[in-house]
Structures are given as C-alpha cells and as structure tokens.
Design goal:
single chain; 336 residues; alpha/beta; TIM Barrel; globular; binds flavin mononucleotide
C-alpha cells in the first residue's frame, strides 16, 4: 500500500470523503468510485481489533482487501479497549496503513451494548484514552475519530468530546449530525456540526449527514465551517455524486450524468471486481444489493427485469444477462 503525502495531517484534496459503510464500502466499490475521480479519502468499513488480530479467514481477507491504487484510505477500527485498539492500529501501520479512524458513532444495539461505537459518547474519558493510546501507537500516521452529536438530545457532547479528542492527539474529526438514539431518523443538524467546528479551531473537520448534491455540499461547508464533507447513502444510490460534488467544490463544470450504456459499463466493471474478490458465486449474491440502489435506476431497468437478475447465482451469467437485458440501454441512450 502506498499513499500520496497529505498536505498536512487530516487534510485531503478534494475534501470529499466516501463514508465507511459496512457491507458496502469494500475494495470493489471504493475502486469504482476512485475510477470516477473526485474522491479525497475512502474508508474501510468498521473493523474489530480482535477479528483483525486473529487475522485469518476469507471474511477478514475480503474486509481488509486493498490495492496500491486504493489510496488515500482510512482504516476504521471500533472497540472499547485502548490497548487492543492500539495493537490493531500497529498491525495496520505495519501493513502500510497511513490513516486510522476510530468509530465512536455506531448506534447498532449489539455494538453499543458492549460499550463500543456510539456508547463511547457516554464515556468521553475512555474515548479520549483510546485516542491517546492509538495516536501513541502509530506515530506519523493520521488518527481521526468519527463521532455523532451525542447520545441523545439531552446529551449533546460533541463539542466537549472534540476538544478532549484533539487534546488526546487526533488530527481530524468526522462528525455525523445526528445523535445515537436518532439512528438515521430526522435530519442531520448542521448547526450543531458548526458548534463542533467552533469548539476545535484549526482541526480539519468533515461534516456528515444527508448530503445529496454538490450545491448542498458547498452550502453545508460554508455554513458550518467544515473543512470538507463525507457522503454515505447518497453515493450508494448514485456513485457519480462524488465527482459531481468534487467538481462543484473545485468550481469546475459538473460532469454530465452517465448515459445508461455508461452506467451499464460501470455496473459490469463493479460486478467483475466483486467476483474477482469474492468468487463468482458469492460475487453474484453480494452484487444483488446494488441492483435497487444504482443499477436499476441508472440502467432504467424494469422492476421485473431486476428481480429476474437478482435470482442469478453466477457472476459471469449475471454479467451476460445484464448486458443482454440492457443493450436497450444503448437505445435508451439515443433518446436522451
Ligand atoms: C449500510 C450502512 C453501513 C454503515 N457502516 C458504517 C461503518 O462501518 N462505520 C461508520 O462509522 N459508519 C457507518 N455508517 C454510517 C455512515 O458512515 C454515515 O455516517 C451515515 O450514513 C450518514 O451519512 P449519509 O447521510 O451521507 O448517509 C453506515 C451507514 C450505512 C447506511
């Protein structure tokens, strides 16, 4: 793994981050997004140090799969044991990682019931100790934390926690503008993200929550004072959003949306990468989740066509059927 030098720790150019998305932000998807251009930083999904340190097995190999062009990349760890997290960070550093991100925002019950993820919002001293140990374990690497506003509306801790984490040595923060209790409900509160920015001046802060186009990204960055933005769900539905946001931020013309045939070519390459990593059978099954997200809308596929394709269990056959079903995408193209 290699990584271009970052202008300064925690600063990426363009300031557009693809969110860690468990089950989605694997090497194939990251590489597809990188191919389109405009991505400042990709993330692995959250990795548990114990699983990482045990280190064997196909699942972990796929979760940690990367390649030289998959850069810059932040490796996200979650857990509550500072020493274990520090050991895992060292292992990643030895494998070439240049950026470690600490998950302090996952609201999933199984995770928070163990005191991990968003539960750390309720134990800020432990969160700061984790940050301190990890920063000390990997000198020279960027260590960031991804937090939420707080546990619930009555416990908004992000500005104070941000100060503690910065004192502990982290060099960047990602802040999702919801509380843990909110999960994904309601709207991300960018005013409260602005409060976090104001609480740690000079530290790169990436705002996160509900960004869905370039204009919105600029407005959110301006109004909150964030260094950049992180995009999650909207990029799963529209991978071309990342180059659109990057171009808007850089004041360049926004690339036109893909034609159906360009979208088909993209989906076929994504499928090929998925089957190269997971195998043809598992690759076909794993690719199913992308069908309703971006494949069907951008290829202008009928629902029944999509359902038939989702029954396919071999990636090669699926690729052929996609191509057969969607040469109409070429015809549809002409009608654009
Ligand atoms: C399917 C899915 C998986 C996610 N996995 C992770 C994860 O592994 N680590 C993490 O910090 N956040 C995870 N998140 C949260 C996102 O990174 C992001 O904070 C959230 O989706 C809000 O951003 P958005 O409105 O742009 O989607 C996940 C979200 C979704 C929808």
């Amino acid at each position: 793994m290699t990584c271009p030098t970052l202008p300064r720790p925690g600063v990426v150019d363009p300031p557009v981050l693809l969110a860690p998305l468990a089950g989605f932000s694997d090497l194939p998807f990251r590489m597809m997004i990188r191919e389109l251009g405009g991505l400042g930083l990709g993330f692995t999904e959250m990795l548990h140090p114990l699983a990482l340190l045990r280190g064997t097995g196909d699942k972990m190999a796929c979760l940690t799969a990367t390649e030289p062009a998959d850069t810059p990349l932040a490796w996200q760890l979650y857990g509550r044991d500072p020493e274990l997290l520090a050991r895992a960070a060292r292992v990643l550093a030895a494998r070439g990682a240049r950026w470690i991100d600490l998950n302090m925002g996952c609201p999933v019950r199984k995770i928070v019931s163990r005191g991990e993820g968003a539960a750390l919002l309720k134990t800020p001293d432990l969160a700061a100790r984790i940050a301190e140990e990890v920063v000390r374990a990997v000198p020279g690497l960027t260590v960031s934390a991804k937090i939420r506003l707080g546990w619930d509306d009555s416990c908004i801790v992000a500005p104070a926690l941000a100060r503690q984490l910065v004192s502990a040595g982290i060099s960047a923060l990602i802040i999702h503008g919801r509380t843990a209790v909110q999960g994904f409900k309601g709207k991300a509160d960018w005013n409260r993200i602005a409060d976090v920015v104001a609480s740690v001046p000079g530290i790169p802060i990436y705002g996160n929550g509900d960004i869905s186009d370039g204009t919105e990204a600029i407005e959110r960055m301006k109004s909150s004072g964030c260094t950049g933005i992180m995009v999650g769900r909207a990029a799963m539905k529209n991978p071309w959003l990342i180059p659109e946001i990057a171009a808007t931020l850089q004041g360049q013309p926004v690339p036109p949306p893909p034609t159906p045939s360009e979208a088909l070519a993209f989906a076929l390459r994504h499928l090929a990468r998925t089957s190269a990593l997971y195998g043809k059978g598992k690759g076909a099954v794993l690719f199913r989740k992308w069908m309703p997200l971006y494949v069907r809308p951008f290829l202008r596929m009928k629902r029944a066509e999509m359902v038939a394709l989702m029954a396919e269990r071999d990636a090669d056959v699926l690729a052929k059927q996609l191509a057969v079903l969607c040469p109409e995408s070429v015809e549809k193209d002409q009608a654009f």
